[in-house]
Design goal:
The protein is an all-alpha fold and 147 residues long. The chain contains four helices and two strands, in the order ααβααβ.
Length: 147
């Protein structure tokens, strides 16, 4: 009996995690589109300021991302701590993402001589994966709601 209960709990946790991952990806498409559009507009306006374009896009994406991930992606987690702690964590994540993104983008463009847009896409794959796990397990952590 205990084994059946443990397996049932594991299955629910697994389904919950997969659901969060799917919602994270759906929200992420919208967040990424807004971030990347700001980046592209600035780069096409002045191609020499790709780092500034990167940061401007990241800011737009961070604001939209915090709101949507809190309200939609991780809404099934009962938050054991307040929104301010989450906001501080999200801002720290934004800061680390911005620094990592700027560093990787600089290496790809200035040292490897890759195209700016291609470089940004490649860097973003790494940043998105890192962000999901930090968001899920550190920022929006909590206990599952419901029975």
């Amino acid at each position: 009996m205990t084994s059946i209960l443990k397996n049932s709990i594991r299955a629910k946790v697994s389904i919950n995690f997969v659901g969060q991952l799917v919602r994270y990806c759906l929200v992420g498409v919208l967040v990424y589109a807004s971030d990347f559009c700001v980046f592209i507009l600035i780069v096409f306006w002045d191609g020499t300021i790709y780092q500034e374009a990167n940061i401007a896009g990241r800011i737009v994406g961070a604001v939209l991302g915090f709101i949507l991930h809190k309200k939609y992606t991780f809404s099934d987690l009962q938050q054991s701590d307040g929104v301010y702690r989450q906001l501080i964590g999200y801002l720290a994540l934004f800061g680390s993402n911005a620094i990592l993104s700027a560093l990787f983008l600089w290496v790809a463009v200035d040292f490897l001589s890759l195209n700016v847009l291609l470089s940004r896409l490649l860097v973003d794959v790494l940043i998105v994966a890192f962000s999901f796990f930090v968001s899920r397990f550190l920022i929006f952590k909590g206990e599952k709601s419901g029975p």
